Prior knowledge:
This protein is an alpha+beta fold and 572 residues long. It folds into three domains: 47-72 and 110-236 and 401-452, BirA Bifunctional Protein, domain 2 (2-Layer Sandwich), CATH 3.30.930.10; 251-380, YbaK/aminoacyl-tRNA synthetase-associated domain (YbaK protein); 470-566, 3-Layer(aba) Sandwich (Rossmann fold). The strands form eight sheets. Strands 3, 7, 8, 9, 10, 11, 12, 21 and 24 form a nine-stranded mixed β-sheet that branches. Strands 16-14-15-17-20 form a five-stranded mixed β-sheet. Helix 2 (44-63) packs antiparallel against helix 5 (167-187) and helix 11 runs parallel beside helix 14. It starts with 20 loop residues before the first helix and ends in a 6-residue tail after the last helix.
Amino acid sequence: MYFSKLYIPxxxxxxxxxxxxxxxxxxxxxxxxxxxxxxYEFLPLGLRALRKVENIIRDEMNKAGGQETLLPLIFPKxxxxxxxxWNVYGKELFRLKDRKDxxxxxxxxxxxxxxxxxxxxxxSYKQLPVMLYQFGTKFRDEIRPRxxxxxSREFLMKDAYSFHxxxxxxxxxxxxxxxxxxxxxKRCGFKFRPVExxxxxxxxxxxxxxxxxxxxxxxKIAHCECGYGANAEKAECLEPEYAKESEFEKTxxxxxxISSVExxxxxxxxxxxxxxxxxxxxxxxxxxxxxxxxxxxVNEIKLQALLGVAELALADEKTIQEVTGAPCxxxxxxxxxxKVRIIADLSVVNLKNAVAGANKKDAHLKNxxxxxxxxxxxxxxIRNITESExxxxxxxxxxxxxxxxxxxxxxxxxTKYSKAMNASYLxxxxxxxxxxxxxxxxxxxxxxxxxxEQSHDDxxxxxxxxxxxxxVIIAPVxxxxxKIKEVSENIYQELSSKGIDVLIDDRDERAGIKxxxxxxxxxxxxxxxxxxxxxxxxxxxKARRDAKDAIKLLSPQDCIKEILKIYGxxxx
Length: 572
């Protein structure tokens, strides 16, 4: 491709609303343009990179035994009613009606559609297992689209779904798919980490996120040198060990106008880790009290999963008053006005002589102890992990934290969708069983943004070899010079004939401008053809990832051989 023929309107500066480096560089390098909030157009350069990512994923899915299909982008309401997701998915679901007033949604995921497809045609255990995948546009009405294509309203995703006779076969195949995702990450040049994760709206018993490590990542990852890793919202917390302590008499302390743990701690001189923080929640319309140690925070993802409810939210002031008999900030587990379920985090069940709200305005209690002063209905790990805690797996090393960008997610769905939609098969004895499912999603557009977040410098993008829109750029210092033009075009023709994606910068521009654009676009290898080096029979070869002065002087033919060697091509 000749630069002058390529639609590539690069920019010196990114728009002011581009909020992260990947968005800025993708816009400046003419990979994308913003159409509206959360909606982006892919220009030729961006689409070339996107297709290369797509092909890597397709290759790994095929190796894992998948078969590609293509589902509609619009799904009928009736399928979502079957699984119960129509009313619980939330406002992120784009809903619409046709001219007959029939209701539909724009696909955010495709569990219902794929399960409907399989249940119509798969009837015997002999047809299982089967995995179907697709590349399709997905839609989510983000409340605040941000981070360019990282969190947009429309995006390209590969979603895959596997169907099995039992959990054992799903477990076997889940490992295959996790390895396939790891292979995708490696081929895309990522530093990454697979971590245990909450299953969210998709559901299922177990899942792994594939996180690209980047300081700009929006998610926090807890990990240990033993190999354990989990999303912060999923990371397990051990029950703290406390020194043995005698129980003292419970006493009330006046705390006028003081309600927060921090302020009461200062007032009483008792450290926050001796507090029982009592939070009033409403779960599917039912109020309940949640207890956690004063220096910890409730993990609502864990709490919602524990309770198995569709909706969970902090109670309003009126509900808090009804449950506790006091305004906000004075709730405690002892002496609640209204009988509600009490869920206690592991951090409080053995905490002795704690401080807690007195369920009375301007008052707290000291020396509150479980069993004697209050009881709980459920004890469980329902808090966020904190830095310097011990790893829950090896129970030896300290947990470390990193930032990450989620680019893929694998789920063990079990029978969540197949049971609701009666996707069944006949086993070898002729008995009907419900199929067991797995689900595997990977964000194709998100991979591009994550790559740039992890691999860039002050001059622009640094693409890995496998997914760069072009593999080589030839930069003639003066394309009007007949000798320079001849050598440049000979290199271009020979590399192109061997399957190398080459861009030749034939513009009438200064060499410095060509170099800046090459660095901005991030093409892995630049061949510079200039009069001075040609006089000695050489051209310059420079890798984008190398230092500015890391230049090789090679003859044109040796330069071609070097590129072909790098990309594993065979010279004819």
